[in-house]
Amino acid sequence: MTKFTVNGNPVHFKMPPETPLLWALRDASNLTGTKYGCGAGLCGACTVHVDGKAARSCQVPIGSIEGSFVVTIEGLSDDRSHPVQQAWIAEQVPQCGYCQSGMIMAVAALLKENAAPSDADIDGAITNICRCGTYPRIRKAIHRAAAGAADSGVPSPESTAAEAARIAPSLKPR
Questions:
Q1: DSSP state of 26
Q2: In 3-state terms, what secondary structure has residue 144?
Q3: Are 128 and 106 in contact (CB under 8 A)?
Q4: Where is this region: Disordered (predicted)?
């Protein structure tokens, strides 16, 4: 049995340790905001935070994150108040929207590490694929989020977890 924390809730998965985190989240925890894109860690649709770092969940075996802290798009904020989510809305980033949860999670991790990224920093850190090609709006939203985060503070994984634990329904062990 693998144990770790998802969005502030302790979880226990009775799944083989080589099961990708993506499937544990989607199938066992019903957290479907994390999307399956390519299954090879290339597109980024499945990006979540593991111990505060962006990770492609299709490539993370659950056995490798025993005791870790995982945040999904559902745990980033309960009311779309995170600076990245606010910037996404303000800049009307989504077109089809499929890649957006992974993109938002990747950007939130970037801004935690670099509160004022340059275009080169963004290019190096955000390798997610948007098949609709909304990259100009994505870049504009990242800069807007960085400016907003500097004003309001990007929530830490710990504060996000506390908020998620307060509002999220308990996950049943599987």
A1: I
A2: helix
A3: yes
A4: 148-174
Residue ranges of the chain assigned to CATH 3.10.20.30: 2-73+157-167
Query: Selecting from 3.90.45.10, 1.10.150.120, 3.40.50.620, 3.40.190.10, what CATH number does the domain 83-152 have?
Result: 1.10.150.120
Six-digit token string for 159: 């504060």
Q: Residue 16: is its pLDDT beyond 70?
A: yes
CA angle 115, 117, 119 (to 5 degrees): 165
Is the distance from CB of 87 to CB of 142 less than 8 angstroms?
A: yes
Task: Check whether 174 has a pLDDT greater than 60.
Answer: no
Q: In the CATH hierarchy, which top-level class contains the domain 2-73+157-167?
A: alpha beta
Is residue 2 predicted with pLDDT exceeding 60?
yes
- Mean pLDDT of the residues in the chain: 88
